[in-house]
């Protein structure tokens, strides 16, 4: 049997029906890879469609494709990936709060997966099922996709080699830029790219808000160039206009939540209740600090006290982002800007309360004259999680201020846990130009509209 495999030839009808159009060179290299893998795997050879995916991912360089496929086969064996379809049990929190699922097919017969990313509580899912739980869920989806491709090919007149992904970003905000979550997402993307190459035929991004370029800047560098070229972006409501979804998805299959007639069974998502969080689920991995305690700072505030972070900006159009949780009591949050360069006063060695006053008050400055409020005051309540951003159009000093006005009946101090960072204008502008050059129109991503924040609870 094995010797016959070595002399294996490809019937032209079989190629056309199940593999698609191949040049003589591509046929030859498919046969070469098949023989090499047969030698390595002692006769256990993946399907021709699998071999082709890895060949395409490496531009039909047989040596590189063999290396990539060999690594993937070892990975599948180590992590028992072949058993995922039969053994994976969907956690209850995923059933209730994960906003993704398979939804019919696109106009090319590709299986269509819908992900309502803007409604996904990344932090809640990670704190309830962990990074490995989210990875297993993703792998289960990918394995389902491979099975659906086989079924679609059998049901159609031609080979269906990839699926279509429809991503709805309605609701996307700075909550989704929680850095531990982004790191977990990047790890998952890298694993999928390495083991499921050339399975993504088209990615349709709809209802992309103005905060999306920041997330795209972080994520896109980890996506293969060939895969990235398959992304189509739609801002605002233009996804139902000519050149939009109707070019790729049958009209009667447009999901109802996007204004179509087709009932979607994809969960709408929402915030995962903290009661479902599992202690210790989300931990550090391989020395990379993923736990929020490693990057978040905790602060206690008494009545009338403030905590401030001063960010001196010398990079116009850079983006200031923040993410904080109010752990006890109510706290007022405001962002100010001054043309003057500010610095924190040294801590009072006597233990006085001067450092608990605003640096703006200490200088005796007046609002509207020496400094300006660039984000309106937001009163944040006990238990709330707040995210936001501000495009720092001009240079100057920006002050993130948290203030406690009242204490609870037990006179306990208010508590806060926060994280902030600045995304440089170079990266931000780069993401904008790359998006705008290949989209149907990001009208809602104009420079003017991006100058304000995207606060989110």
From TrEMBL:
Q: Where is the CRAL-TRIO domain?
A: 90-266
Identify the InterPro entries for this entry. CRAL-TRIO_dom, CRAL-TRIO_dom_sf, CRAL/TRIO_N_dom, CRAL/TRIO_N_dom_sf, GOLD_dom_sf, SEC14/CRAL-TRIO_domain
Its Gene Ontology cellular component terms are:
cytoplasm
Identify the CDD domains for this entry: SEC14
Please give the PROSITE patterns that the UniProt record associates with this protein: CRAL_TRIO (PS50191)
Gene3D superfamilies in UniProt: CRAL-TRIO lipid binding domain, GOLD domain
Entry protein name: CRAL-TRIO domain-containing protein
Q: Which species is this UniProt entry from?
A: Arctia plantaginis
């Amino acid at each position: 049997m094995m010797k016959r495999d070595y002399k294996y030839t490809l019937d032209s009808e079989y190629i056309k029906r199940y593999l698609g159009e191949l040049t003589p060179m591509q046929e030859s290299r498919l046969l070469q890879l098949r023989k090499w893998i047969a030698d390595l795997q002692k006769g256990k050879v993946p399907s021709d469609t699998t071999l082709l995916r890895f060949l395409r991912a490496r531009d039909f360089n047989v040596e590189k494709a063999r290396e990539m496929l060999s690594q993937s086969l070892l990975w599948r064996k180590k992590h028992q990936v072949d058993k995922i379809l039969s053994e994976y049990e969907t956690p209850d929190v995923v059933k209730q709060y994960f906003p993704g699922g398979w939804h019919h097919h696109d106009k090319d017969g590709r299986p269509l997966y819908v992900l309502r990313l803007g409604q996904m509580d990344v932090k809640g899912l990670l704190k309830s099922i962990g990074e490995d739980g989210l990875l297993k869920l993703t792998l289960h989806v990918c394995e389902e996709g491979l099975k659906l491709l086989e079924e679609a090919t059998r049901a159609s007149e031609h080979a269906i080699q990839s699926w279509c992904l429809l991503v709805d970003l309605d609701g996307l905000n700075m909550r989704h830029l929680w850095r531990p979550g982004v790191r977990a997402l990047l790890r998952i993307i890298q694993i999928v790219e390495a083991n499921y190459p050339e399975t993504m035929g088209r990615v349709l991004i709809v209802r992309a808000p103005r905060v999306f370029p920041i997330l795209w800047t972080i994520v896109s560098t980890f996506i293969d160039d060939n895969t990235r070229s398959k992304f189509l972006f739609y801002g605002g409501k233009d996804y139902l206009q000519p050149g939009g979804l109707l070019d790729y998805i049958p009209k009667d299959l447009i999901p109802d939540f996007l204004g179509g007639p087709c009932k979607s069974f994809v969960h709408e998502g929402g915030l995962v209740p903290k009661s479902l969080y599992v202690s210790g689920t989300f931990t550090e991995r391989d020395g990379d600090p993923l736990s929020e305690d490693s990057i978040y700072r905790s602060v206690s505030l008494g009545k009338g006290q403030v905590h401030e972070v001063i960010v001196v900006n010398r990079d116009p159009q850079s983006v200031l982002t923040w993410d904080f949780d109010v752990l006890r009591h109510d706290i007022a949050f405001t962002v100010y800007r001054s043309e003057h360069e500010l610095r924190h006063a040294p801590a009072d060695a006597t233990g006085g309360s001067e450092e608990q006053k605003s640096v703006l008050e200490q200088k005796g400055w007046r609002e509207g004259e020496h400094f300006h409020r660039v984000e309106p005051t937001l009163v944040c309540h006990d238990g709330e999680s707040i995210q936001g951003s501000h495009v720092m159009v001009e240079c100057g000093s920006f002050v993130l201020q948290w203030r406690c006005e009242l204490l609870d009946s037990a006179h306990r101090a208010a508590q806060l846990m926060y994280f902030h960072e600045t995304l440089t204008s170079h990266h931000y502008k780069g993401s904008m130009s790359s998006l705008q050059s290949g989209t149907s129109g990001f009208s809602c991503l104009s420079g003017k509209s991006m100058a304000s924040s995207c606060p989110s609870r």
